[in-house]
Amino acid sequence: MLPGFMASGWRKLLEEESEHQWLAIGLFFVFIIIGGFLIGGTTSLEGMMLGTDPSHELEFENGEFLIEIEYHEDASWGDAHSGILKTQVGFKMYQQMGSDDIDDILPVNDPAIEDITLFTADSDGIVTFSSALNTLSTYREGMVSNQTLDDGYGSEFGIHALAVDSSSMLKNRLLVTSEDGGSGLRGLNGQGIITTSSALQDSLIWDDVVYLSQSTFLAVGTYTVQSSPSQSPATPTTQIVLAHVYWDGGSTAPQVLRQAMGNGSEIHSLVRTSDGGAVVATNQEFYMVSLDSVQMQAYASTVMVYEYEHNRAWLFGARGSESILRIDVSTGESTSKNLPYPLPLQSTAGMIEGDVLYIHGFDSNGKADRISLDLTLEGSLSSGRGFLNFAFIVVGVIMIVTQAYLMVEKAIHLKKA
Q: What is the pTM of this model?
């Protein structure tokens, strides 16, 4: 008796309410379609801002061109940095640890600033630079100390890049050098002993180096291909070089283990990743490097910024670009992100400080400026897309629950009748 009654009740419900049900379902599908278009239209990154906070009184805003900049992530002030700046009166190498805390690393217009071949800094604010042959200089707590490097053979060399073996208590370093005969790699151990150079090649110029793991480094550079008779000597062909280099702090010269070649004429970014690998970006390609492999993807860029927290890389194009590319280094998957407006700067440098991504560059008039991008806004309720996602889910759930409630209520009403 009861099953038959229930079946009869549901049959009557469907017959009496069919038009209303189909209308509700139709409205729900219309809502889904409109919501999909709205969400699709909010794929632009939120929170991109041109310029800086005026209250921070950043020193580089007073210059004509920012040549070098390194941010200090562990400083108490979010915008703490060191840099080399070209001003109207000359060159300036400085460190700014607060709005009113600015120190000159070298005196303004010191001739040595124009001879800088190496400039790097760590998260605490220790700056390492080189402005003379065989010399490494360190700026720490307002003082500059110089270290003269002697390999015992009277060799003279400039220093262009260095990487520190972070697993070594002695902080062994691999140096990229320029010397008679070409570009080389030298090891400098924690006791101040420097090795002889690796094999020099006239056509190979090392540009940068980063530590990977297990006494292995990644050195990158460019190789000039010998011109064929049909090519003009004035337009030589270049290739990108990536090499795994082994050096364990001993007295022997660093050893190139394996070498890979790629396309392009410039390596603009090299960063060690959180998993002990590295990412490399050139004007034509993007590389993901591990201790024993090199993977290439054909993505062109002018600046790359690596995000340690999420192990992903952001690739920026030329001024006027309407989107940027984000790559998950763990999987190799890439996502194109639309910008809220065309990129207003020709990018020259980028970095992440806390939850903010900074891009330095110059506008169409040659004026230096900075873009900031708040990485916490993507997908949050304070962003357009995040709000629409939330509203879409809430409204959809409400509509489904309402329909279910009405159906149950109607079935109960019919049963009582």
A: 0.80
